[in-house]
Amino acid sequence: MHVIHLSVECFPLAKVGGLADVVGALPRYQRKSGVDAWVVSPFYDKPFTKDRKFQLIHAGTFVQGGETLAYEVLKEKKDPLGFPLYLIRIPGKLDREEVYCYPDEAEQWIAFQHAFLRWVTDAGIIPDVVNCHDHHVGLIPFLMKHAVDFNQLADVKTLFTIHNGQYQGWMTWDKGALLPAFDTWKWGLLDWDGLINPFAAAVKCCDAFSTVSEGYLQELFVQANGLEGLFQTEAYKGVGIVNGIDDEYWNPELDNQISKTYKKSSVKSGKKSNKKAFCDAVGLNSNLPLLAFIGRFAQEKGADLLPAIISNIFSRLEDKICIFILGSGDEAVETTLKELQDQYPRRLATFIGYNEQLAHQVYASADLLLMPSRVEPCGLNQLYALKYGTIPIVHAVGGLKDTVIDLEEQGGYGFLFAAAEPEAAVESVARAVNTLTDASMLQKVRQKAMSLDFSWDKSANKYIQLYDQL
User: pLDDT digit string (tens) for 295-331?
Assistant: First the structure.
C-alpha cells in the first residue's frame, strides 16, 4: 500500500507543535508494517535543509491567479528519518525560514497543494491514500475530486487527520481565483458562512476523517468553532485514533540529551541525578518537588492561567515546591512570568522560547508536569512525561482525559481536574505534592507510568486498518 502524508510540519524539518512530532514518526512506524509511506512538506530555509543533501526529482510550473509559479520537488538523499521525505520549493513562497505568520499564508498553502497535485499528476504517481494533516492541506480532497486537471486522482482515497479544529484556514472568496480550475457547480463544498473554509471542505470531501484521540472526536460534535453541525452530519466518516510517541527518541534509557540515562528500575536515582544537574543550572532548589510546564503561551493551552496558578501555589504550599516554565507566545504572559521569577527566586525559573534539548532535560528532571489546557485534541507532553516517570496533572479534556487516569481510580497514575481554572489546578497540584511525599508511593507511580505503552506501534496499525477499509 502506498500512502502519502501531506503536512506543513514534520520533525525535525520544521516544528511548531505536536503536528510535527506526529508526521515525523507515524510514517516510520507504518513502514515497519510494510506500508510505503512518504511525507511531502514545503521547503524551509532551516538548518535541516542546509545540513542535508537533496536531489531534484521533478520541476514544473503552474498558474496561480495571474502568476506563473515555478516549483521544484526535492528528495532527501539518504532517508535518515526512516521514510522518504519530499520537499516542494517555490521561490518567494515555499523557501522561507518560518512555518507560519506570513501575511500571504493562504497563497502559500494554495501553492503548496497545487504544486503537489501538479507533480503527482505529471509524474504519474497514483497513491492508494493521501493522508492530509490539518487545514493547511484541507483543499486536497476537494481538488482531487473536482479540479479539472487532476481527475486522474479522483478515485484516490483521502484521509483528513484533525490535529486542531480551532484553526480552519478561513479565506475570503476573492482567493477562489487562485485555485486550480474546478467544477464551479461544486463551489458549495468550499463554502462555510460565506468564506472558503479549507477545514470544512476537507471534512465534507474526504473519504474519512480522523482525530488524534477518541475524546476529541466526541468534543467536536459539540464544540468545533462553528462546525458542530457539519461534524454531526459527517459523523459516519469519523474515527478517533490517539497519537503515539516515538519511544526511540523519547526514551530516558537511550536519551543522550539528558544528564544521566535511566530505566524503570533505576528511575529514583536517575531522576534525582538529572534533577540536581538541572536545578543547579537554572537556580532552583533540587531538594523540593519540581513542577514543570512546557508549551505555547496560548489561551487553548491555558497559559493565561499560569500566573494565577503559580501565585496561588506559592501562597498555599509556601516553600514546598519549585516550578520551571518552558514556553513562549502571549507577551503579557511572558512579562508576568518574568516578574514572578524576580519575586520568587530559587523557586521559579523560566525559559522564554523553545529548546528541544532543554525539553528532554525537563521531562527527565521534573517530578510533576502541569497541563491546564482548555483544548487538547490529544496532547503529547503528558505522554513524554509518563515515559520519563514524570507524573502529569491535567485538565480532564480531549486526549488528556483519554490518556491519564487519576490516581484515585483503579490503575491510576496521574491527577485530573475538572475545570480550566486556577483554583482547580492548584488543588490538584497540592493533592499531588501531598500524595507523592510518600516515597514508596512515588516510586510505585513512577514505575507504573514508565510501564505504559503509548508507542506508535499500536496507533500506526490503527491507521493502517483504516486505510485498508478505505
Answer: 999 999 999 999 999 999 999 998 899 999 999 999 9
pLDDT tens-digit series, residues 351-372: 999 899 999 999 999 999 999 9
Check pLDDT > 90 for residue 79.
no
Domains contained in the chain, number? 2
233 with 302, same domain: the answer is no
Q: Which three cell numbers stand for residue 250?
A: 523519547
Buried b (16+ CB within 10 A) or exposed e, 419-428: ebbbebbbeb
Say yes or no: 465 and 446 in one domain: no
pLDDT at residue 17 tops 90: no
* Residue 420 is assigned to a structural domain of this protein: yes
Residue stretches of the annotated binding site for ADP-alpha-D-glucose: 15
* 84 within a domain of the structure (yes/no): yes
Residues 288 and 179 in one domain: no
Residue-wise burial string across 81-117, b where 16 or more C-beta atoms lie within 10 A, e elsewhere:
bbbbbbbbbbeebbbeeebeeeeeebbbbbbbbbbbb
- Residue 319, pLDDT score: 86
Cβ atoms of 389 and 252 within 8 Å: the answer is: yes
How far, in Å, CA of 155 to CA of 339, rounded? 58
Between helix 439-451 and helix 267-282 the angle, nearest 10°, is 100
CATH of the domain at 367: 3.40.50.2000
Q: Are both 292 and 171 inside the same structural domain?
A: no
Please give the model's pTM, rounded to 2 decimal places. 0.91
- Residues annotated within the binding site are 15
| Span 388-427, pLDDT tens digits | 999 999 999 999 999 999 999 999 999 999 999 999 999 9
Q: What is the largest CA-CA distance in the chain?
A: 69
β-pairing, 195-196 vs 191-192, is antiparallel
Instruction: Please state, for a pLDDT cut of 70, what percent of the chain lies above it.
Output: 100
The domain containing residue 319 runs over which residues? 264-453
Q: Which pLDDT does position 318 carry in this prediction? A: 83
Q: And the C-alpha cell for 18?
A: 505536536
CB of 384 closer than 8 Å to CB of 365: no
Cα angle for residues 264, 268, 269 (degrees, 5° grid):
110
